[in-house]
């Protein structure tokens, strides 16, 4: 990440980097062959050694962020289905919504945790420097 981009909160959110140093990855590299590996987080930042869980239950609030993201995905899928196929059935709508949630789970999980962490942790240009 270039130095000019340091401190820009959206870079850390969508890059899944720790907001304090904006260098350390939040999540371990995952594989589609092992879906559970897509949800694994590091315990500490590899760059600045800060704990990713400031207090027990910290990420409980990320559940509400995930709810908002899923609601937006539901509405987008519903509007897209209505535009593409106006005479859809309730079963088709529910099937598409379930598919969107299942396929989007790794992204919404990572994104909601990244957003929640960025709300409470601010960028520190001296983080990770020895």
Describe what this molecule looks like in 3D.
- 15% of the residues are buried.
- The protein has helices at residues 9-14, 62-84, 90-120.
- The protein has one domain (3-120).
- With 130 residues, it is mostly helical.
- 46% of the residues lie in helices and 0% in strands.
Q: In total, how many domains does the architecture comprise? A: 1
Largest sheet composition: none
Distance between the termini: 19 Å
Low-confidence stretches: none
Radius of gyration: 18 Å
Task: Give the number of helices.
Answer: 3
Helix content: 40-55%
Oligomer: single chain
Order of helix and strand elements from N to C terminus: HHH
Helix and strand composition category:
mainly alpha
**Shape assignment:** elongated
Beta strand %: under 5%
**How many β strands by DSSP?**
0
Mean pLDDT: 86
Organism: Algoriphagus hitonicola
Protein name: DUF983 domain-containing protein
InterPro entries: DUF983
Keywords: Membrane, Transmembrane, Transmembrane helix
Please tag this protein with its features.
130 residues; mainly alpha; 3 helices; 46% helix; 0% strand
Could you give a quick summary of the protein structure above?
The protein is built from three helices and no strands. The protein has helices spanning 9-14, 62-84, 90-120.
């Amino acid at each position: 990440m270039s130095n000019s981009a340091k401190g820009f909160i959206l870079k850390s959110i969508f890059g899944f980097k720790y907001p304090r140093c904006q260098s350390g990855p939040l999540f371990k590299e995952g594989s589609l062959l092992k879906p559970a590996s897509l949800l694994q987080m590091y315990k500490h930042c590899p760059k600045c050694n800060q704990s990713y869980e400031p207090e027990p239950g910290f990420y409980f609030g990320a559940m509400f962020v995930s709810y908002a993201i899923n609601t937006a995905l539901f509405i987008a899928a519903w509007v897209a289905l209505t535009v593409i196929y106006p005479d859809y059935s309730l079963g088709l709508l529910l099937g598409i919504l379930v598919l969107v949630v299942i396929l989007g789970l790794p992204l919404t999980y990572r994104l909601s945790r990244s957003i929640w962490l960025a709300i409470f942790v601010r960028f520190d240009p001296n983080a990770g420097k020895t």
